[in-house]
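Researcher: Re-running this chain for the archive, since the previous output was lost when a drive failed. Same request as before.
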Amino acid sequence: LDVEVVAAIADRIARREVLRSVTVWSSVARSLCLTLVRYSLLFWLPYYLEQALHYSKAHAGIFSTSFEVGGAVGTIALGFLSDRARHLPRSRFAAGSLVLLAFAFLLYSAVGKTGVVANTLAMALVGAALFGPDALLSGAASSAPTPSKVDSAAPARMRSQCQSTPSSCPA
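Model: Regenerated structure tokens:
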């Protein structure tokens, strides 16, 4: 068999295994949910501040940025913590941050209407707890080993197997 054919077959097998991976599908679901919440808040928050809390348009636009500022701080903080504790998987930090997100939403619902400072700080906490795990897990996923990186010897093994037992080779 030609080396390119063996490599193409190995690549097809690796892709099939990736599509069957529970980890891949859970990462897709996580990304979808976090992105949905993130962009819902990003676009909804100025409207909510203006309509429900009666901020002026200018103030609603300004104070809604607390979500993004908190997100930037949370991303840096969570990345720093996960780098310091390399012996722990990043998923633990992300899970802890998502638990914090649930409490941050509860806090926001309790104090969001009490004043500008409380609203801004609570929404910054929501942003920190939401952006952090998204960046942490997305960055980890992009740098994680893929089947082609993990098993680069697969085509050679397949070629060797095909030479020794031609009937076991795909056509």
